[in-house]
Design brief:
With 271 residues, the chain is mainly alpha-helical. Helix content is 65%, strand content 0%. The longest helix has 46 residues, at 92-137.
């Protein structure tokens, strides 16, 4: 076994410690990926942008990012073990394989981060128009609805205590909502006695039964449009993915540099 200089020896142990941290980060990324895939929040349907007329689909993007985290997390666990062994044994072959696979994963993760960053710009451009269009063409306005978009929008309106995307008046054009002429807003735009009861069991008990026909700023949420809350909700979720991925990428860059230095030093002893 080659006797490395003090500086390179320190790099060896730092590389070992960082790869030990990789086990933790890999487990975290793996767990986050599972969470993102199994999360069945009713509001997620609101992110299915342009399913019929566009290639951009936020739900698909989030699921893709989750798969990247799952695969990347599992790979990091394996590569972390390879890096630990290569660092402690000062084995050039193991270290070379470690650096190679790490660079491949690094490229994939950078691509995922770029795609996720592009998503944030797409939200403003496409998602709002999609939601407003679907209020007009799809929204049913029934508390016991099973239609996905209607259920997702109602859930969002209760959860965020808001009404409409930009305005409650958007419901005037809801062609599938068979409401009477004097009904102005759906019940989910009204103040509820217990919003948790709706979020859990889809039961809505209004504070004021006259709210759907005579909404005010007191008995309803007509002064609180939903867009800002929905946009913030989605950006917060993607920010979690970007943050963890960026942290992993930073560590991977450090590991690649340290690994190359150790390999270079080992080659000096072989020559």
């Amino acid at each position: 076994m080659a006797d490395l200089g003090c500086g390179k020896s320190c790099m060896k142990y730092i590389l070992f410690v960082i790869n030990f941290l990789f086990f933790i980060l890999g487990a975290a990324a793996f767990g986050l990926g599972i969470w993102a895939l199994v999360d069945k929040n009713k509001m997620n349907v609101l992110t299915k942008v342009g399913a019929d007329d566009s290639d951009f689909n936020v739900t698909g993007l989030l699921e893709s990012a989750a798969i990247v985290l799952l695969v990347g997390g599992g790979a990091i666990l394996l590569i972390g073990f390879l890096g630990c062994c290569g660092a402690m044994k000062q084995n050039k072959c193991l270290l070379g394989l470690y650096a190679f696979f790490l660079i491949i994963i690094l490229i994939v993760e950078l691509a995922a981060i770029i795609i996720a960053a592009v998503f944030q710009g797409k939200v403003q451009d496409e998602l709002k128009d999609f939601l407003k269009k679907n209020i007009n063409t799809t929204y049913e306005g029934k508390i016991d609805t099973k239609e996905e978009f209607s259920l997702g929008l109602d859930y969002a309106q209760v959860y965020f205590q808001c009404c409409g995307i930009d305005s409650y008046k958007e419901f005037e054009g809801a062609t599938k909502w068979n409401h009477s002429a004097n009904v102005i807003i759906p019940k989910t735009c009204c103040k509820l006695k217990d919003k948790d009861e709706y979020l859990k069991d889809q039961k809505a008990v209004l504070e004021d039964e006259n709210c759907p026909t005579s909404p005010t700023g007191t008995n309803s949420n007509i002064n609180e449009p939903c867009w800002d809350s929905i946009e913030s909700y989605l950006k917060d979720r993607i920010a979690i993915v970007i943050g963890i991925a960026a942290g992993i990428v930073a560590l991977e860059v450090v590991c690649v540099i340290f690994t190359c230095c150790i390999i270079s030093e080992l080659r000096k002893y072989d020559s």
